[in-house]
Amino acid sequence: MTTQPRLSNPVKLVPEFGPVTGALFKATGNGSVPQSTISLVQLRAGQLVGNTYLTVMHSGNLRKAGESEERITGVATWTDAPYYTDAERVALALVEAVLTPNPHGERVSDDLYAEAAKHYDETALTTLTIAIGQVCFFIPLAVIGRPLPGVSPSQQWRD
Asked: What is the model's pTM?
């Protein structure tokens, strides 16, 4: 069992990384999309890439925010789980489309985009897109760096 991450603290190694991550958190926290939706999407991304660190972190964030266990655990099977609004469902469909190869054409179809546009104005849809990009930005650190599940980022990286 791993007792420490593979990588040292990325912000210490590459100081320019800090402002980038801060900007991403600020952009996704602009209030145009509920934080619960962003967290559900980011949990689903962690599940899709099969990363325990991301799934534990985003599940924990949802618990701290007061989300029910049904909504947290149901993300893995969201398509038939009764716990999500139509807006949340389209957000989960978007992250799946982005992270799942489609052998039949583009990943985000015009129909999926049109459905998303019914639930999110242009600012919110852009914010949701950035939220998907944000978790995708961190996936390589989670997969390559292998941080420890359940350990806070501030306590995570070896020096």
From this structure: 0.91
